[in-house]
Automatic annotation (TrEMBL):
GO terms for molecular function: galactosylgalactosylxylosylprotein 3-beta-glucuronosyltransferase activity; metal ion binding. The record marks E209 as: Interaction with galactose moiety of substrate glycoprotein. It is found in: Endomembrane system; Golgi apparatus membrane. UDP-alpha-D-glucuronate binds at P73, T74, Y75, D104, R145, R150, D176, D177, D178, H291, T292, R293. Belongs to the glycosyltransferase 43 family. This is Galactosylgalactosylxylosylprotein 3-beta-glucuronosyltransferase. It is a single-pass type II membrane protein. Residues 1-31 form the signal peptide. It catalyses: 3-O-(beta-D-galactosyl-(1->3)-beta-D-galactosyl-(1->4)-beta-D-xylosyl)-L-seryl-[protein] + UDP-alpha-D-glucuronate = 3-O-(beta-D-GlcA-(1->3)-beta-D-Gal-(1->3)-beta-D-Gal-(1->4)-beta-D-Xyl)-L-seryl-[protein] + UDP + H(+). The active site is at E264 (proton donor/acceptor). Glycans are attached at N283. Mn(2+) binds at D178.
Amino acid sequence: MKSLLLSRFLVLLPWTLLVIVMLDASGSNRAHRPSSIFSRRPLSQQHPLQDGAAARRRQQEAEALPIIYAITPTYSRPVQKAELTRLANTFRQVARLHWILVEDAAMGTELVGRFIGALSRSGHLSCTHLHVLTPRRFKRPGLPRGTEQRNAGLAWIRQKYQHAPPQQPGVLFFADDDNTYSLELFQEMRTTRKVSVWPVGLAGGRRYERPIVEKGKVVGWYSGWRGGRPFAIDMAGFAVSLQVILSNPKAVFRRHGSQAGMQESDFLRQITTMEELEPKANNCTKVLVWHTRTEKYI
Ligand SMILES: *[C@@H]1O[C@H](CO)[C@@H](O)[C@H](O)[C@H]1NC(C)=O
């Protein structure tokens, strides 16, 4: 009996030692990483100069990135603050993102004003708060939502760049507040040259909708709904470069002549062609954004 225990002990001993050695090695590795959040050294022992240089380098790198404008139409309802909080928690992790939040309201509401104020003060996310009221005659079920608000966001951007030198790098996209965005999506859209496209999860009554890509080009649409649209794509499924927005100053979301669900298609038709579209997300094989739609709770 005793010899059995001893042999078990001898079998386990080398493994135990191996684990201890590995733990120790990973600990000392961490200690050599300068100023990482994993660092075990007290703050006073870190090298302020080196950290300052690293921070400056990171900032320079971030400034070289094309800016991303996210235009979000929003309106007052019980889930609104939950939706905006989820979006803010994503956007604040994206470098060089400017959030344009446009309320469907005659005046900015206190809820959104305070929300944006706190975000701006936190210094983690730059935002602009706009508002425009949807005319009452357009507030009917079946009619598209967010039209006037998206156009207000476009107008704000065009105004901002009115006197800017040409060829400003930048990208904009329409970030409805009922979606969930993966951080990877922003890396993908950041390199948009004209108009880029990608799949959208939980859209059109399917697990996903997506552009069909052959040899790196968009040739059609996998869509659960009105497949005949020239661009059968959801609002969350594309981004446009600042150049395209500025060089097509008349391109807007139209109510007249565009039926519900045709707004994306009608807008894209004003600024691009199917041949020009740039497929992102691994030739449109990865889903990086979802129509989560918070359940109507009350
Ligand atoms: C997309 O497809 C094209 C053509 O098949 C290929 O050259 C390219 O590398 C693909 N891109 C990615 C990101 O897989």
